[in-house]
Amino acid sequence: MPRLSWLSWLLAFGLVAAVLVVVGGDRPAPPPGSVRLVEDLGPVTWDHRILGRDGGLSARWGDDTIWVFGDTVMSVSGADGDQWADNSSVITSDHDASDGVSLVEPDGVEHLDTARLPSEYLPLSPWEADFNRRNHPARCGTPGVGDCGSQYFLWPGPVVADPARDRILFFLASGRRHGRISGYRMWGSGVAVWHAKTGQTTRPQQGSGIGTLVGDRWTMFGREEVRYPTMTMTVGDTLYAYGCEDAGQLEFHCRLARVPLAEATSRRAWRFYTGRDNWSADNRTAVRVFHGSHSGSVFYNRHLRRYMVVYGFTAAYYRTAPHPWGPWSRPVRMFDTVPPVRDFTYFVLAHPEYGNGRVLYLTYTRPTEFGWEVRLTRVTLT
User: Fold this and answer.
1) How far apart are CA 342 and CA 361, in angstroms?
2) Any idea which fold 6-381 has?
3) Residue 211's pLDDT is what?
4) Chain-wide mean pLDDT for the chain?
5) Please, which pLDDT band fits residue 224 given cuts at 50, 70 and 90?
6) Is the dihedral of CA 305, 331, 254, 242 positive or negative?
7) pTM of this prediction?
8) What is the CB neighbour count within 10 angstroms for residue 342?
9) C-alpha R_g of the chain
10) Could you give the angle at the alpha carbon of 263 between the alpha carbons of 254 and 300, nearest 5°?
11) CA–CA separation, 255 vs 169, rounded Å?
């Protein structure tokens, strides 16, 4: 089954935070601070059987940090006979990023399949799994006839730790492909929940679902909606989530939602920012809070005492704001990424759990000859 490319992921899921504009037309203010020092720390290290992986969102959980990745290519086949995973994850106890980030033993532990090879951590819903079994090209007859050959896939979104409820929220995008890279479509976005007490990951249902198919009951935001979230941050016990829609040429219009963390898995509990400190249950009334390109991280920077968003492609930028909804400052260019072997770099992400606000650790995905590396950079602010 031909695979979707990393570029398809960027276009389809829209993990984004970029060229921001303030709603209302006010001129963005200059951000506090400036870049004092930039240091390239080289690639993140992982299992030697992995040829490449992209993404690299992360979150602290207790004494460990969880990293999640998208497309993951291996040199050997896993238990399913495949050398490709649509998502993968690692947990590491290495919290000293000053000498790089290690995702290999004894610090790092990969999520493995029964063949002891890296495998997908996001579970298909029962409906998606059954659909994939019935329509697998090896058993459904003639690919391309009806649903034969069609398969659902899951790509990772933000990781949200919820220690008060002993769980981790893994946001995700669901899509469906039909034999070719160009033959895919996004199905929506949702969430999987890892439960600390049982060690199990489940996909909560959303009532009768967003759409008309029974499989939609595991989707929080459907095909025709802005997909939340592309970026998240927790403020107290409130989860703020940014949802972005494709505006063409790798630019996305982004809106803001919030939800009590305890109710984050229920679509009915989400409220959408409509401007001027107003929130609505109707996501169609949400206003644009910024627009930009792809990927990013948003968090509270305790050194600057402001919220910060980090993003970029071939260069990394940041902006700051006094509130999650803005107004956002003008951008600060932090550094140019190391040129790739092919295509272009992407997925510029911050990892605030490794820094102190004045010192930031960023990663980005750099295409190599045979796959991708996730490269680490340390930025020191004034």
Assistant:
1) 24
2) Tachylectin-2; Chain A (2.115.10)
3) 52
4) 87
5) confident
6) negative
7) 0.89
8) 8
9) 20
10) 50
11) 20
